[in-house]
Amino acid sequence: MAGDVEYSGKDRLLEFLKGMDQSNVSVPKELAEILDMSLESVYRRLRGEVEFTFSEVIRIAERFSISLDVLISQQKGTFATVHYNQMYNQSSVFVSYLANVNAMLKKVYEDKGRVLYISNNLPISHSFRNRPLRDFKVYYWQRVVLNRERYRSVNFSTEFALTDAVNHSINTMLDYYDRIDSSEIWNENSLDSTIRQIDYCKRLGLFKDDKILESLYDSVRDTLNALENKLASATKGEGIEFYVCSIELASTCVQMYMQDRYLTFLNFSIFNSVSTSNIGIAEEVNAWRDCLLNKSTQIAGESELTRHNFFNVLRKKLDTIS
Distance between alpha carbon 193 and the CA centroid of its chain, in Å? Predict the structure, then answer.
């Protein structure tokens, strides 16, 4: 293909093809058919005289029903395969979302891994701690972001409640998160998206009454107070690290480390994300993390005055709309 990109993971591909050759499959003939080329062209690729192109690797992966991650996810080039959750025009997406999160956190916990959370908004590990904030986050996502038809005429009230099964999944998620070592990086804008969400619904008249709105404000305050108290009682160097960054975070990123494997999540549309195990992206995130940490203050179990001032800034922002 003219203008196609060379594939840099030849060793991994050849290892896979060697395994195919031992299963009584004529690999050269199969490749000649798949790639629509002569046997001589195939042999030149197998001998390493000519590189496979990226589009050829895709066709091989499709033919043998293997994930592209197997062939390219660990390469350090500028290409990476990603996984995403299909949210729109799907039913029960939130249940599936929680199940996936819990499965990954369980794996991190079992592997004694670690989670990095670069937070441009209030993380679900905190926004789901208190109700009605938990309920509101799901309501906003369904009503405003996904534009679910059944939510268009529904106002947010105490009658809006998640099912017992969903609440159980959320509590399981929080339990796993609390048992995993974590590093969180926030800045003074990390609460802004939550404030905008509440203000948007307030302007549209989506709250049933002022009482539910006030209880939502109180729920956000309780979330901040609980987190501040948790950080105040934390032991330096154990469990949670929490950093206040003095520069813009720009986006939300979550990275899970399990044994020798990274899984990186780049957030969009509040709960959704694209994820990849590509080592090149993981290293880029680690370099970004190091840059942010150089401009941050650790406030878990230390820096009492910085911690106090930081949470006061967040609370004052909430006070401006409440």
Answer: 17
